[in-house]
Amino acid sequence: MSWPVAPGLSRPRILRQRWLDLTFVHWAFAPADVAHFFPPGTRPDTFEGRTYVGLVPFRMVGTGLPHGPAVPYFGSFLETNIRLYSVDETGRRGVVFLSLDANRLAVVATARTVFGLPYRWARMCHERHGNHHTYTSTVRRFGIQALVGVEMGERMPVGPLEDFLTARWGLHVQRAGRTWYLPNEHPPWILHSARLTALDADALLRSVGLVPPDRPPDHVAFSAGVPAEFGVPLRP
After folding, report:
1. Which of 20, 51, 108, 197 could make a disulfide contact with 149, Cβ separation 3.0–4.6 Å?
2. In sequence order, which ranges of 16-62 are alpha helices (DSSP H)?
3. Residue 11 burial (CB < 10 Å; 0-12/13-18/19+)?
4. Where does the secretion signal sit in this chain (predicted)?
5. Could you give the CA distance from residue 160 to residue 86 in angstroms, rounded to a whole number?
6. What is the CA radius of gyration of the chain?
7. pLDDT at position 226, please?
8. Count of CB atoms within 10 A of residue 16's CB?
9. What is the pLDDT of residues 48-65, one digit of tens each?
10. Residue 196: which of 166, 177, 220 has the closest Cα?
11. Exposure pattern of 115-154 as b/e (b: 16+ CB <10 Å)?
């Protein structure tokens, strides 16, 4: 089970940013159906025998080095990612990203080159009207469109499933023929219930090799966000 409070992040820190206005949309999958996506030395993490695929649109704000001002313009952008939940041979739990779509070309190029992350350049928009949030995106190279609309509700209790889905203190990524673990830390999430008012993500899921489920999402939640910091990449 994931721990809701981050373990201490070793120094040096390499990056800080804030994740804001996040919608968490999740479907349960059989682990065998997604196992081929995981880098060597990792496998699908499970909750009550199932693993999950997450679709998470949000705003990234204030990206920068651990100290000093954030990067102007390029340090704030919109992102929508598709993610899986991983555990490595040491028992360390994390996230595996199948895609990270962002509306800053320089961010996409840098993240792909430096960290080997599957960023893609997209045209994106986030609108808020009261408690209603709408996220739209079009992946520029492929013309893939996605839409998520959500109405934020009351604060919700964070149970074991919510901890499993959101209390993740790093990501696993394959880079230069090796699997690396990039650790992070942030405060515990404050989650709200959320009602989907629109969802068009089948093309986005197919674009990363997933078969879209023929049912509504199994779990939806919203968070105003958290600040986060990253440490240096580690070998699992």
Report:
1. 197
2. 31-34
3. exposed
4. none
5. 16
6. 17
7. 97
8. 20
9. 999 999 999 999 998 888
10. 220
11. bbbbbbbbebebeeeeeebbbbbebeeeebebebbbbbee
